[in-house]
Amino acid sequence: xxxxxxxxxxxxxxxxxxxxxxxxxxxxxRTGRWEARYGARVAAVMANRADAGGLVHAxxxxxxxxxxxxxxxxxxxxxxxxxxxEIDRYQPALVVLxxxxxxxTPGFVxxxxxxxxxxxxxxxxxxxxxxxxRRAIEAGxxxxxxxxxxxxxxxxxxxxxxxxxxxxxxxxTPERLATRVLTQEHLIYPRxxxxxxx
Length: 198
Hints:
The chain is of the alpha/beta class. The chain has two domains: about 1-110, Formyl transferase, N-terminal domain (Rossmann fold, 3-Layer(aba) Sandwich); about 120-198, Rossmann fold (3-Layer(aba) Sandwich), CATH 3.40.50.170. The chain has helices at about 20-30, 35-40, 55-60, 75-90, 105-110, 130-140, 175-195; strands spanning about 10-15, 40-45, 65, 90-95, 115-120, 145-150, 160-165. Helix 5 (about 105-110) links the parallel strand 4 and strand 5. Helix 1 (about 20-30) packs parallel to helix 7 and helix 6 packs across helix 7 (about 175-195). The longest helix is centred in the last third of the chain and has 24 residues, at about 175-195. The model has no long low-confidence stretch (mean pLDDT about 95).
């Protein structure tokens, strides 16, 4: 028997681009299972760029959207303060980074401590930062993958919540590897979020 839901759990997703991980999370939420079991829904999708393609998909799904353009602020602290004000309107249980290409200030991370998650396209702790697929190939790795983790003030650190392994094939390019890793991201990110909701 499914326990009665006592309080709604809002999820706010932050994106910078096409939002394919966001779309996978929205699709998982749309099955109705998260709402029925945990009272959870994707309440809003926010971007730091007005041209982020994922905003279109979110609007088509009837999800509230907002743009907080980082270029409109004098520095990271001012941008993060404005972004926090927008996010906090939804009283989020989780803030999900899904291709959000901004390094967040320690104050932002502290504000959402325990509620802030990210996905990174490597098997952390290997290859934090950028160009993960190229670096894995150049290092001669036999496998790559992706990691869902809690966000801390240290870049690409924090408790690992889920990982998926993808083989590196002979003749792989960073682009081909990235495509295969992305298919796994779309599977493990919704799964990790559901575990957090539970």
